[in-house]
């Protein structure tokens, strides 16, 4: 099969097409004939040599795929060859076939193409695990979402909408602000022009954000504390601007705040299966609504994965970037 390997840690040019044997699904796995594979921030970190695959995972990049079941490993029930599915991989998504633990595989939402479905698993699993299951997202909450026009941000905005919470997105320009509001955000803050904490307080009549989804870190941590409501919870998903921060501890104590951090990839198979169960019950029905607004998707041929990485690093995109195999070439993107 065609796959994309990381020749050596480095820039987008480190992604090279290779020919490899089709993986054999192990016990508990299904083999997916990949139509489309989503591109995510962690893929860039892996390519740079900063996010090693967990033990036993494929060294190939790629954390999410959609396609058809091609084969079934021992002990797997509930799937049949030819089923159209999407899955959270432990690696190896940038390939024409991927072996995926069956507990991390979900049906395609009604009305979604395989290209569109490939944009979902990594970000929806991440936000479900952190914002929903750990930080207890509840109806009526206000959630500050940094990087609102990206993959994680878009998933957070839409999960808030389904959960009956109000998302306030943080973006870098008006085009991305419009995009976030179209996805369902109550408001968008342009971080290049506005004071984030002041604007959150104004938008919430002085209450603040009950939850914060942050992928920036560094100096923004103090802003998140200032923008938080009493009893708030800041969910740290990445540290794009700094892995260390000065935290105003007295304000954290006075506001009774929680700051938690997590990465999805090293989580156990049982945890990932529990997240999948939650997505299936709480979110898939809403995603299948014919009026649902899907994320913007730009597509690239699998062999040109390096172009997709360069596009993500340019930070001009809205929504998701997805790689297409020859099998997925006829699928439509939103
Ligand atoms: N913890 C986990 O398990 C987990 C899982 C998935 C992803 N992640 C991490 O989450 C991050 C986002 O991933 P993604 O797939 O959503 O990427 P993405 O689609 O490229 O989105 C990132 C968004 O953040 C904004 N942004 C980028 N750099 C920024 C900065 N320095 N300051 C403020 N905003 C910035 C970008 O827009 P503007 O620059 O225009 O604002 C962009 O909209 C990555 O670092 C990724 O590694 C973590």
Verbal overview:
The structure is a single chain. The protein is α/β, with parallel strands linked by helices and 334 residues long. The chain folds into two domains: 2-119 and 265-324, Medium-chain alcohol dehydrogenases, catalytic domain (Quinone Oxidoreductase, Chain A, domain 1); 124-261, Rossmann fold (3-Layer(aba) Sandwich). The protein contains eleven helices and 15 strands. The chain has helices at residues 41-47, 114-117, 121-134, 151-163, 174-183, 196-203, 220-227, 249-255, 269-282, 284-287, 305-314, and strands spanning 2-6, 15-19, 29-39, 64-72, 84-88, 97-101, 105-107, 142-145, 166-171, 187-190, 209-214, 228-236, 258-261, 297-301, 320-324. Strands 3, 4, 5, 6, 7, 14 and 15 form a seven-stranded mixed β-sheet that branches. The chain is globular and about 55 Å long. NADP nicotinamide-adenine-dinucleotide phosphate is lined by residues 40-42, 45, 122, 126, 146-147, 149-153, 171-172, 176, 215-216, 237-238, 240-241, 262-264, 312, 315. GO terms for molecular function: NADPH binding; oxidoreductase activity, acting on NAD(P)H.
């Amino acid at each position: 099969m065609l796959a994309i390997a990381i020749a050596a840690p480095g820039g987008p040019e480190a992604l090279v097409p290779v020919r490899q044997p089709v993986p054999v699904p192990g016990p508990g796995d299904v083999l997916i004939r990949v139509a489309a594979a989503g591109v995510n921030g962690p893929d860039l970190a892996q390519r740079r040599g900063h996010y090693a695959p967990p033990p036993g995972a494929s060294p190939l990049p790629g954390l999410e795929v959609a396609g058809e079941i091609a084969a079934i490993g021992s002990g797997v029930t509930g799937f049949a060859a030819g089923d159209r599915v999407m899955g959270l991989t432990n690696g190896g998504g940038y390939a024409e076939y991927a072996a995926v633990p069956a507990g991390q595989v979900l049906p395609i939402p009604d009305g979604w193409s395989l290209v569109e479905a490939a944009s979902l698993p990594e970000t929806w699993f991440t936000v479900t695990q952190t914002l929903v299951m750990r930080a207890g997202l509840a109806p009526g909450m206000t959630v500050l979402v940094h990087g609102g026009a990206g993959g994680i941000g878009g998933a957070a905005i839409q999960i808030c909408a389904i959960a009956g919470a109000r998302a306030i997105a943080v973006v870098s320009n008006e085009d991305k602000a419009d995009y976030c509001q179209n996805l369902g955000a109550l408001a968008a803050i342009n971080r290049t022009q506005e004071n984030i904490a002041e604007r959150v307080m104004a938008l919430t009549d002085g209450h603040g954000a009950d939850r914060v989804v942050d992928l920036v870190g560094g100096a923004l941590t103090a802003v998140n504390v200032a923008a938080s409501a009493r009893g708030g919870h800041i969910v740290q998903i990445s540290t794009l601007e700094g892995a260390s921060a000065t935290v105003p501890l007295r304000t954290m104590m006075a506001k009774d705040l929680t700051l938690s951090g997590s990465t999805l990839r090293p989580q156990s198979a049982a945890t990932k299966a529990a997240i999948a169960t939650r997505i299936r019950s709480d979110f898939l029905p809403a995603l299948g609504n014919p009026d649902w607004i899907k994320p913007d998707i730009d597509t690239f041929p699998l062999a040109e994965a390096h172009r997709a990485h360069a596009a993500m690093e340019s930070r001009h995109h809205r929504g998701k970037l997805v790689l297409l195999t020859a099998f997925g070439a006829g699928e439509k993107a939103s």
